[in-house]
Amino acid sequence: MPLSDTKLKSLKPRSKPYEVADSGGMFAEVLASGAVVFRYRYRIFGKREKVTFGSYPAMSLKQAREKHLEARAMIEAGKSPAREKQRTKSEDTRAESFREFAELWLAESEAGPDWREVQTQWLNRDIYPALGNQRLKDITPDDVLTMLDSIKKRGAAHSALRVRGIVKQVFDYSIARQRVTFNPAVAIPTKIIAKPKSRERALSEAEIRNFLLALESCNADLSNKIALRLIFITMVRKGELRGAKWRHVDFDIGEWLIPETKNGKPHIVYLSSQALALFRQLQSLAGASEWVLPSGSEPRKPIGESSLNSVLYGIEMAQLRKGNKWERFTVHDLRRTASTKLHELGFNSDVIEKALNHSMRGVRGIYNRAQYADQRREMLQRWADVVDAIEQAVRVLNPFIRKQVA
Predict the structure, then answer these.
(1) 226, 283 in Cβ contact below 8 A?
(2) % of the chain at pLDDT higher than 70
(3) Can you say whether the dihedral through the CA atoms of 298, 301, 306, 309 is positive or negative?
(4) How many Cβ atoms are within 10 Å of 52's Cβ, its own excluded?
(5) Residue among 61, 72, 67 at smallest CA distance from 2
(6) How does 250-283 read in b/e, with b if 16+ C-beta sit within 10 Å?
(7) pLDDT of residue 305
(8) Which H or E run contains 111?
């Protein structure tokens, strides 16, 4: 039986190491110390070899299986995974400082250029001055905490949370590369850095206006800019759009089917004329990819989880640098904003909840997935018109505001 996270968590050490098989030659070896290590045993050039991928849970089961697939592809190409790993590791031996490992982490990430730009801004401004020249293995939790405290002292507690997250990811990467065994950022719980902010955030009309204009003028990838507009006017979740495939978009009837959503059920999005136009733009950008939002570096995969967040963060940083007032919001807050404005416009709460694909309990929850279809189609068209009107009004009546935000 293949491995699972439940099974991996239940593995107990014995007096001697033992193996638990996954599939295709990959297995988890449980050491006497209790450590669980992913390995792959294979044959190439008439010899048996073994390569180690990483330790659980620093390396997830999903990541190990991806490494396994990569190793099998190497073998098919006539390359030894063990020798390739040794070669790569020898190239990495030059990297000793936090800065050098952070650069390797950035270079190997599958995220887009917008994400890399945002992470680089944090690294250059806050992390490199404090940790950049230190050897990775010498950095302690106290070093990280001192850096975070200095950020908090300037009144930027939530920036400190972001910085902690980046430091943690760099160390996770280094652990997976077997260069260090301890992550000092993990030793610092987020609750001592900043209290979580309430997620009850909805943009005002002025904020909507400024967001749309800033989105238009920012230097993010065009497909990501279109994606944020689509989320705003269709009210879908970020993950639902990331996972969208062209075979689920019906341009003729103006519907987009999401086969499985957060509540485990399919959901139909009724597309406004504006949403259809945005999908057509994305189709021209996607090329032959089956994904509506293919990754720029790997068209066979969708964009990364942080890609759209990075666009919003880049806009925020750009506006703050210009001296403009800008209160942070997330991709999810765009859904909440749409819901709030539609309630203000007098639309039925059940129709709004159905468009958001929220689970409804009781008698209201028994209706099928196409319930309120006509009302939802009308409502989403109205909402797209409202968003257009907000943007067009400021373009025509207040050009100086456009110039200020752009």
Answers:
(1) no
(2) 87
(3) positive
(4) 15
(5) 61
(6) eeeebbbebeebeeeeebbbbbbebbbebbebbe
(7) 81
(8) none
Which runs of consecutive H residues, i.e. helices, occur in 124-249? 141-153, 157-176, 205-217, 222-234, 238-242
Q: Which residue has the tokens 């709004």?
A: 352
* Radius of gyration from C-alpha coordinates of the chain: 25
Tokens at residue 8, please?
């991996």
- pLDDT tens for 313-335 read 888 878 877 777 888 888 999 99
How far, CA to CA in Å, does 187 sit from each of 164, 184, 353? 11, 5, 40
Residue 58 is encoded by which pair of tokens? 């620093």
Question: How far out from the chain centre does Cα 301 lie?
Answer: 13
What amino acid is encoded at 38 in this protein?
F
Residues in the chain: 406
With a cut of 50, say whether residue 268 has pLDDT above it. Answer: yes
Domains and CATH numbers, the chain: 5-92 (3.30.160.390), 98-192 (1.10.150.130), 205-405 (1.10.443.10)
3-state secondary structure of 195: coil
